[in-house]
């Protein structure tokens, strides 16, 4: 049996114009980082190349990247150039672009700019529709979230990225601008923007060049341990109580205002870990439930982690952040179902390499149908003026 020769390739469009060959002549490295929404970081594209004559792209240019092998290309999304650097000799050009719009001067949109506004008695679908439109994007939201009523949201000197991330933490969701959409989907569901489940694959030791595994402390989560995503909804504000016994069970508690009684009550969820309290009081029971349930999922996801670096294959290219990977043959503890927190795709003279950062899959086995595409959970696309009640 002959060996299949995998020749890595890419295509790059700049504001719709094919610039692949111009970039290919001097390219040193292309690196695309696909971040899961739980990391609270936008997807990014970094291109390094050498050229004495190539003009620097202006900030705000839209780049469209595809990666693949032997002409079989996979679209990896659109990115807005936010930084350009050059140095030499020889003349080296470094281009950085992000999935979130960040150039108000060129396109009129910047999801990182701070705003002051209030949303009163709106649904999550209403809020997402407005925020997405304000940033030149189309909102897509899980059906289970679209009609949830939000009594009040105050955006005070806060960016749209930060506010939507805060709402996601409160209502059991993940928020992420990606490829022309602003996604607001169920946390941990491995759900694609069209409502289908993301693809999943099995990885064995013979497929990888490097891997590592770790088990974390009970009660920690990815936001606490990684330092990512600091902001007004920073998970470090949650108070973790030291266990008073060897009992592994504990409670996650969030206080909320009961409008009908005028009293402060507590929503509690049990989990395998210490007692954890949210120091903030939620506006209502729905947001308190979402906040506590999401925290429980984060703690569970962070209990075990694994990183894998591997020569990329065509099957791997179909994966995105939030997809699922099953490890097999690594060891009793290491073999399990994982959810992808982030992927680094690196293309250079050595080929195309994929680096996966994995966290515990909190969904029951069989909960997603990534390979078959069956079992969709509906999402709604929110165009300007659309109805969000279905």
From TrEMBL:
* Species this chain originates from: Trabulsiella guamensis ATCC 49490
Region: Disordered; residue ranges are: 212-255, 269-302, 363-390
Q: Where is the composition biased (Basic and acidic residues)?
A: 272-296
Its name, as the record gives it, is Phage protein D
Compositional bias of kind Polar residues: 246-255
